[in-house]
Amino acid sequence: MSKNKIIDAAIKLFSKLGYHRTSMDDIAAEANVAKGTLYYHFSGKGELFETIVTNGINMLKSEVQNVLREDQSAEQQVRLIVQKHIELFLRYNELIHIISNELTNGIEPDILERIGKLKADYIAFLSGILSMGYEDGVLNKFNSEWIAAGLLGLIETSCLYYIKQPGSHSVEQLHETINAFVLPALLKKDG
Amino acid sequence: MSKNKIIDAAIKLFSKLGYHRTSMDDIAAEANVAKGTLYYHFSGKGELFETIVTNGINMLKSEVQNVLREDQSAEQQVRLIVQKHIELFLRYNELIHIISNELTNGIEPDILERIGKLKADYIAFLSGILSMGYEDGVLNKFNSEWIAAGLLGLIETSCLYYIKQPGSHSVEQLHETINAFVLPALLKKDG
Amino acid sequence: MSKNKIIDAAIKLFSKLGYHRTSMDDIAAEANVAKGTLYYHFSGKGELFETIVTNGINMLKSEVQNVLREDQSAEQQVRLIVQKHIELFLRYNELIHIISNELTNGIEPDILERIGKLKADYIAFLSGILSMGYEDGVLNKFNSEWIAAGLLGLIETSCLYYIKQPGSHSVEQLHETINAFVLPALLKKDG
Amino acid sequence: MSKNKIIDAAIKLFSKLGYHRTSMDDIAAEANVAKGTLYYHFSGKGELFETIVTNGINMLKSEVQNVLREDQSAEQQVRLIVQKHIELFLRYNELIHIISNELTNGIEPDILERIGKLKADYIAFLSGILSMGYEDGVLNKFNSEWIAAGLLGLIETSCLYYIKQPGSHSVEQLHETINAFVLPALLKKDG
DNA sequence: TATGAATGAGCATTCATTCAT
DNA sequence: AATGAATGAATGCTCATTCAT
Q1: Is residue A165 within 8 Å of residue A188, measured between CB atoms?
Q2: pTM, 2 dp
Q3: Which pLDDT tens digit goes with each residue over A79-104?
Q4: The domain spanning residue C55 has which CATH number?
Q5: pLDDT tens profile B128-165
Q6: What angle do the packed helices D171-186 and C141-164 form, to 10 degrees?
Q7: B109, C27, C47, D72: which is deepest, by most CB within 10 A?
Q8: Which nucleotide is closest to the Cα of A22 by its C1'?
Q9: Integer Cα distance of B172 and B157 in angstroms
Q10: Which positions of chain F lie under 7 Å from any protein Cβ?
Q11: Which of residues 4-63 of A touch B (CB under 8 A)?
């Protein structure tokens, strides 16, 4: 189906080139459809972009939710969240890159706002999980949102840095390092 | 002097609009010079951008170096690094945003490479300080580079999240939260 | 029936937006049919437009013919023609606007020619009536065609001007003014 | 100078093809300049069009004003106005065509409004002259505006009709016919 | 040093039309 | 008789860059 071909091509190109350097011609060529077809399925470049980002965020959220279960301890949940995010950020690093970096300027304000809300929701979702586990800890509501945001920034930056390196280290080492950095703070005791 | 007017205008506009949305016309108008003058002083948009980013990174580095002194303990240095970065990221958040986000795509590859090197140097510089303080700790060289990168990502994301909020919390609370998150891991004991 | 729905939609939109600003998509949407259906019933946009204009001119002609009767004096006929045209131009001003303005450019030449002929026929028809009444007057054949054309231009422009005004004057005043202007010239002695 | 070449080309093409069928590419080609040059001198197609129409209306007005003198009788002035308009409409018929027909749809509303005001001013100017000469006559203020509008419509349509004909009649005959039609109504006595 | 008119490749978008079903 | 997904040429516009002065 044309629509899916377009979405796949757009993810690929937006990731590689960013929003502004990706032209609708590029996308059409990559998707092997005529340029007009893009506009049959999407109202414009902005909507196409929004679709991809929205899908991406929802996918991330559901992947994370899938590994969390009610019967897990708070500590297990925190460990799983960190682990799953590293895994997702490595696997979908191009999509992640779109979601975190391309969302600031030069895109229609209303689209930006809707996506911003989605991202805030996602952080609130993570923050909720952290808070739950730490009701008896030092972190309170507002703190935990900053922590959640910072945690994502940390994992993303580390993963990006890892990817850029010429494969000199293993994924396990990345997990270890991030865990060693992050868990001591998130978990009340231990490091 | 025209050149300085151009640089000031470019910083302002690149920060506000990003690389692609800032046009040479905009910069010329903001600097109150004719468009041709830009090309008299810089070979093109890319070089102008590179100049600004290079200046920015050097400024950050020297600001951080200025607060570090030989007679400080490792712990003091780590605390100062974190504190100073929060301060700088809040103050120069637009410039920071350029440095971290606008540098991935759509700029001439050679420029990108040079700037990438500068950034790597900066991370190596931070990593060096961390390593020094932890020669007796668990972190080793490769770990500390990831940590340095992750630390910057964390601080930047948290600050960005802080800035976006409608002023509901104080800067002090931001410092406290980030410290509470980061220091337990970086410093051998304590939280 | 689809065809009628299409014609109705097309009249409405061509009148409101003109030929070029009316898209086949618009027409299909307004008519509640699929886009392909337009091309089932009409060979293209041009033919659809021609159908509407032809229908419109024929309608005008028959409306005018309906008020003219053999037993009327020449003066009566002239008065009726003027009066009826004002009435029609006010009622169908959007259609009139298409017929007089949209027919000069940007439409396939052969369509343009056929419609042009229709318009010339209409003017000849009016001219014939005027001539008949003035066989004993000063106006001769070629004069009366110019007069007929001019008369239509005058009535249209006046009506358009009247319509654009914020309802400050009555239709009666419009009739009076146009009559006061036009009849003295058309009728041998005053009006 | 490029700007003049562009204006000349635009007048020619807008007249021949109308607003929508004239592309900026066409204009650039006709003017022998690069496409970008159009946008260096004009903000867009709309402004280019507005410039031409505004210039045209002002030119017409000043040409008409130039033949009117204080010491002329009202009758002389009316005769001169009619005569001058016929002359102008024949000479600048393409420009006239733009001014009267292309101003209804599909052009930015604000441009349309400004041009509409200019046209209304022009009609008010003519209406003023007519009124002055008829202070003792039957026409009053609102009447004279309609008359002015209608007069222009009449002259334009007649001239257009004249132009379309295969040169079978002389300009003198056109003047005579229009005068014979128009003067009886405008001038209190006589024909 | 500095200017600004001119350029032309590139871009997002529109839209009449086709065709397999 | 009717559909709607797909097309691709055309269009208005942007913008980094050049160059004669």
Answers
A1: no
A2: 0.85
A3: 899 999 999 999 888 788 888 776 66
A4: 1.10.357.10
A5: 888 877 665 556 666 788 889 999 999 998 998 888 87
A6: 50
A7: C27
A8: E11
A9: 17
A10: 1-20
A11: 16-18, 20-21
